[in-house]
Amino acid sequence: MAATMQVSRTAEANADLAARIGSCRRLPTLPAVALRLIHLAEDPGTTIQQFADLIATDPALAGKLVRVANSSLYGLPRTVSSLSQAINLLGMNATIALALSFSLCRPGTTHCSEMFDASRYWRRSLLTALAASTVAVELQEPQPGDFLLAGLLQDIGVLVMDVLLGEGYSALHSARAGHDELLRQERESFGFTHVDAGDILLHQWQLPNRIADSIRSSHEFTPQAAARGGSQAQRLPVVVAVASRIADGWLAGARPEDFAPARDQAQVLLAMAAACFHRVLAAMAVQVPEMEQLFKTRLVDLSVIDDVETSAREILAMRNVSLAKGVAEREYQVEALERRAATLEGRAQRDPLTGLYNRAYLELALGRVYLHSVHARRPLSVAFIDIDRFKAVNDGFGHVAGDEVLVGVTRLLLAGVRKTDIVARYGGEEFVVVLPDTPVGGARVVMERILAAVCDAPILTSDGTGISVTFSAGIATLHGDTGVFESTGDLLKAADRALYEAKRAGRARVVAVDADMCNA
What we know:
7 strands, 64% helix
């Protein structure tokens, strides 16, 4: 009976809080464009053009999205010139996240009390958003736009508490107690926390449940829950929790000891190695100035950015030297070998072992090239490559030698293509080569030339062993004058089917997709 009464009182308190939040006109509100974007995204039939048409009604927002697509946050090799291109490259989720971010961070959106440090609040929110997105890219999580938005809104309830409660709350918040202590004091003083307040506001905004629920969960994570998490919905709150600690490190002075709690938490909750963590910091150091320009606010001092980037590079370099001397544990030695081709810039689009573009970047770049080919009526060929019997290499020579084979094949792939072509590691021993302005005949010549180079030259490992390998390749071509492939997904699937035919025909060969296979 007592438990039932407690549940009833809690429900009444939540209903009262929801009513207070719903009737408060001083809280931030979402512009009509942002709300309509959210509703459009929930419709599976929504097209990129519908998104573009809606965003075009807000010229300032449209301009910022194009600017983001051309910024260091995405690092695309070519200039994006149109809104539809920008949305296609960013994806709908990232577009919504950025639209909401720009809307919420506009000056005067929220009427805070005089004692409330709104500047610090938004600095921390933007740094959390950037950290969450950067960690998501480092871990190759899908839809990094969700991580950006969840990071930005993680502590939106703090704004709600300040607006509703005024200086009585701002004094509590300005004491800058630890996060757990702040929650305890909120509940003790007011009967609810900024987690409760934020959750109500986000649901009143009708944000997707995956975002609102993950924000609440990010305050309640445990190592055990993180270990169980496999899907993006399960990992999103954990990444946001870590990202908030990274933001605290930036605001505390960005010294190595300031980032130590976040580094330890990332290792426990995300199994993130120290090298990965420092790559995240180095990437953020590059991206923070761009973020400041986009949101017209100073996030951290310029000297701090330089110090973090330099420190991250030095730590990575020292660690590589230590590993080369065999001082570190074996697990770190293996990781160093896997990462040796990666650059210290922490570029989010690169595969850490081979230095090639990764699968996430491939999807963005292929979408851009595909649109250009369709509009310009130019041919586009895609080759799907798989090293033959690669498991036998790992079993016979070891995984370290297998990694060296992957790097050796990468070197021959890059030597055989043009600078305008895109070479990506798709996963495991699979690669994809994108050949713009290349008909099927030209693509076949290129792939057969590279195959001959791979077959003729055994790959030497670090211990002097020569390992001979071959590969099979499947080619699919979008012709300039005929449709056939309605999306990049269809093009990749056709190339994959051609690869399967090459494997079935005996391996070590190139097969080009034909019309019958396209229509199969």
